[in-house]
Amino acid sequence: MALITLRRNLCHLSDFRIHGALAALKNHPVNHVHKIAEERLSPWFCPLPSEPVRVRFHHACGQKFHSENGNDLLHPAGEPVLPPAHDWDRPELNPSRVDEQTFYERLNHLTSSEEVLSFVSTLQALPDTLAAGALQRICDMERKDGDQKLPKEILKNSVFQALCVQLEQESSSLPDTVLVTALQALTLLHADPQSSLLLNLVAECQRRLQRGGLEVHSLCILGESLIKLQGPGCATLELIICQLQGEKLEEFTPEDIVTLYRILQACTVKVDQHQAFLNRINTFSLSVVYSLSPTLMSQMLSALVVLDQTQALPLFIKLGKSVVKHIPHFTNEELRKVLEAFIYFGHNDRFFTKALEQHVASACLTLGPDVVSKVMEYCSRKRILSKPILDAVAETFICQSEKFSPHQISELIEPFGKLNYLPPNASTLFRKLENMLLTHFHYFPPKTLLKILHSCSLIECHPVNFMAKIFSPHFLQKLQGEELYLDRLSLAQLTQLFLTSVLECPFYKGQKLLSKYQVRSFLTPCCSLETPVDFQLFRSVKTGLIDLLGARLYFASKVLTPYCYTIDVEIKLDEEGLVLPSAVHEDVHKRVALCIDDPKRFSLNSKHLLGKEAIKQRHLRLLGYQVVQIPYYEIEVLKSRGELVEYLQRKLFPQSTGVCW
């Protein structure tokens, strides 16, 4: 195995043929050493200071550089310093006898790149595997706070430069694992793809790939590194995928399987070409689910979404069960990806929801706005009325409203309207929302603003102070934008808001919505503000009504009212309470509207009506209808046709003993 000798590595350059670090450092000032390193690594490193600094070699059980004034060049003022040299005097920590296990134990206890480089500088000779490990550790620590480049202080560090120079010169003799690990670390640190160092490492990797023989793990690392350097369209990547297809999946570690998913995720344009391979991976991955860490689970779920693997539902369900116990351990970004997968696959798991409730309720104030809005989107899409989640999110918005973007505010507020739920602090919540909208009205995209205000009206938090603005021609023009016509959903929301202003806010005397912006029906195939009646449930009720009323002509179905709502069943009564034929339009004293509510009109697994159904029934009552609700859970318990007739009679005519028509 090749050895990287840090006190001699700079002497391996063409300008340094003197054997031994001591001779080299005695005969060359350090600024000259840096100059040679920069020339070899340019343009990867930033220029170094030009003023000459004399150094001498100091030995105290380990090698250290010191400047003439006694200050350690690797530790500028204010930077953390490792323990003094005598701490290394113990045999197990003596740098001249450090083994791989001791090295990595020490490396994992270091907390900054400066400490890693200072630790490495105490070692006389370093195997190439450990050198690559040190570089990888620097990469891990510098990426903790996000995807960012290395600080200039690290780039200028002579030990870091020495590591990179040695990797460039010794690339042909490096083991496969060390070679691809070094390439991966430099890639993650945003090294210049055109630098001589990376060009040399990539060329060597390509030579070995062409020869064949790279192990699965090395192929996975190389593939992901090339995607970052050259993009998913590079020709070499296809060769890597081809070689991976020829390998037995049983030889892949769980980490390799997830890396393979990430590689294919980057090549979505060729997903059809790789689908057969993906099917094999999806099937095999069932066996490794319980071996995955939270990070790997979230990455696998994200890949299934991006690759549109809806046929891999068994794998998703198994992952969904496994993530339950890991919810408290996900980072914000990982939890967001998990929620996206649950939304995409349309899956709901009560154990997942319960764990999510506990996590959000206890840690909501520490969750990022993107995660909070994604949690609300999940609840909204699946119609999950989770009071712990909604209450915690309401409190979060009250305390941290300035952190949310207009789009995130919309995703946060809409579920309250859709699920027809007012939290205990509703007055504070909507006062906060109103103040934000008044202050930043022009920062909200018109459609986003309309969605927010419409959601508020569903739960009787009427946006009276904004009605004149949204009904104004100026706002409607902005809402339409460059399109020829306003979209159907926006028109329906505007119409329902206008109807709300008339029925529920009679004191409002401001701008009215022009008739050309009003729809005739809220029930449309693409974007409905009503839920169509369930056919099977309607047929059962229809049979009972015929038996009760005596004939089909005494009731009408799917009746469109002049007020845009569609009534499931309408029955007309005269002044004496007699049932009139549905075709009769005269002498109608009362209209009875039957709302035949199937499970889709309620929150999931509850008897709580959704917001759009609640506002419909509220408006129908205000319009003079006698609203009779026929919920599915009352119909399901009836055991006979006779019981159904008796049930309908009690519902329709609670104060009479019989029916007259």
TrEMBL record:
<keyword id="KW-0418">Kinase</keyword>
<dbReference type="Pfam" id="PF08368">
    <property type="entry name" value="FAST_2"/>
</dbReference>
<dbReference type="GO" id="GO:0044528">
    <property type="term" value="P:regulation of mitochondrial mRNA stability"/>
</dbReference>
<feature type="domain" description="RAP">
    <location>
        <begin position="592"/>
        <end position="650"/>
    </location>
</feature>
<dbReference type="Pfam" id="PF08373">
    <property type="entry name" value="RAP"/>
</dbReference>
<dbReference type="GO" id="GO:0003723">
    <property type="term" value="F:RNA binding"/>
</dbReference>
<keyword id="KW-0496">Mitochondrion</keyword>
<dbReference type="GO" id="GO:0000963">
    <property type="term" value="P:mitochondrial RNA processing"/>
</dbReference>
<keyword id="KW-0808">Transferase</keyword>
<dbReference type="GO" id="GO:0005759">
    <property type="term" value="C:mitochondrial matrix"/>
</dbReference>
<dbReference type="InterPro" id="IPR010622">
    <property type="entry name" value="FAST_Leu-rich"/>
</dbReference>
<dbReference type="Pfam" id="PF06743">
    <property type="entry name" value="FAST_1"/>
</dbReference>
<dbReference type="GO" id="GO:0035770">
    <property type="term" value="C:ribonucleoprotein granule"/>
</dbReference>
<dbReference type="InterPro" id="IPR013584">
    <property type="entry name" value="RAP"/>
</dbReference>
<dbReference type="InterPro" id="IPR013579">
    <property type="entry name" value="FAST_2"/>
</dbReference>
<protein>
    <submittedName>
        <fullName>FAST kinase domain-containing protein 3, mitochondrial</fullName>
    </submittedName>
</protein>
<dbReference type="GO" id="GO:0016301">
    <property type="term" value="F:kinase activity"/>
</dbReference>
<dbReference type="InterPro" id="IPR050870">
    <property type="entry name" value="FAST_kinase"/>
</dbReference>
